[in-house]
Amino acid sequence: MMQALPWESLFGGILLGISAVLLLIVNGKVAGISGVINGLLAPKSGDYAWRLLFVLGMVSGGVLSVMMLGIEAPSTQSSSLLVLSLAGLLVGFGTRMGNGCTSGHGICGIGRLSKRSIVATCVFMAVAALTVFIRLHVL
């Protein structure tokens, strides 16, 4: 697996910021992925096309970068369909309970100086760090 360089991460962060700002300026919408997907699953009149293009852009951007840069996906442990389904349901429940996902709060909410998003992002990061610690050092 190729090690990420700080410049690549910086460039990716800049692209995320630009895309979030453009979406907010052009459409008045927040680039939170759970909200975008929710709008695809339960579309409102005139609110479907941009969401579909957003998701297609994310997927095609990832595929193109893998093809152009030759990046190999890291090896992962195989999980059962039951575990993956449970994990997906828990993530969905968490985004509903937290009124948004990490991208919505972390990228867009903090950029708007939302106190709720700043607290939510701090909680996300603390739980992620605790989860990694438990996974690597306890289990």
Automatic annotation (TrEMBL):
Source taxon at top rank: Bacteria
A Pfam family per the record: Sulf_transp
Xref: InterPro entries: Sulf_transp_TsuA/YedE
Subcellular location: Cell inner membrane
Keywords: Cell inner membrane, Cell membrane, Membrane, Transmembrane, Transmembrane helix, Transport
An example Gene Ontology CC term for this record: plasma membrane
Entry's transmembrane regions: 48-69, 81-98, 118-138
Family: Belongs to the TsuA/YedE (TC 9.B.102) family.
Protein's recorded name: YeeE/YedE family protein
Annotated source species: Vibrio paucivorans
